[in-house]
Specification:
The protein is an alpha+beta fold. 16% of the residues lie in helices and 31% in strands.
Length: 174
């Protein structure tokens, strides 16, 4: 994704949060909402990866923020270099596409993790764009039940791309 495509993606996210019926925000939050916070675009955090077959069981159960379990399928694993460190992650398949839940060491993002919807290029090749990392809806509204990234996707490096924690001026609106 180019920087201009990233800008359009951010604008569509902001529009969804501001006025869509699918927004996780309360009416008061929407009234105070003035946009999500993002890192600057970083082209070094866009990767075209080829998945390795998962080493273990393809079926995966992932716990959620409300102590339920969701079933996923491990699509495969991949390794990329971030800040000089090899990072290995597992991509999961859902009924709706390919899903990358992860946590990192960044204090400017939700400690419970962020998500990326991976784009399948062809076969086992996917685009992983950390500039499109987004927070789960439970960050904005506790009524949402969100998958918690599994241990295999907990990183020891900070990912400085995508969404940052939301501004409290609208998050805490009553």
């Amino acid at each position: 994704m180019s920087e201009s495509e990233n800008i359009r993606w951010r604008e569509s996210r902001d529009a969804l949060f501001a006025s869509s019926g699918q927004s996780p925000l309360t009416t008061a939050q929407k009234a105070a909402f003035d946009g999500l916070a993002y890192y600057d675009y970083d082209e070094t955090l866009v990767f075209d990866v080829t998945l390795d077959a998962p080493d273990d069981e393809q079926a995966a159960q992932i716990f959620t923020t409300q102590n339920t379990i969701r079933n996923y399928r491990r699509a495969g694993r991949f390794t990329v270099q971030i800040d000089g460190q090899a990072v290995t992650l597992t991509l999961f398949q859902t009924d709706h596409g390919f899903f990358l839940p992860f946590t990192d060491t960044n204090p400017d993002t939700y400690g419970g993790g962020r998500y990326i919807d991976a784009a399948q290029i062809d076969g086992a090749t996917f685009r992983i764009d950390f500039n499109r990392a987004y927070h789960p809806y439970c960050v904005y509204n506790s009524r949402y039940d969100c998958p918690i990234p599994p241990a295999e996707n907990r990183l020891t490096v900070a990912i400085r791309a995508g969404e940052m924690l939301p501004p409290e001026r609208w998050l805490k609106a009553q």
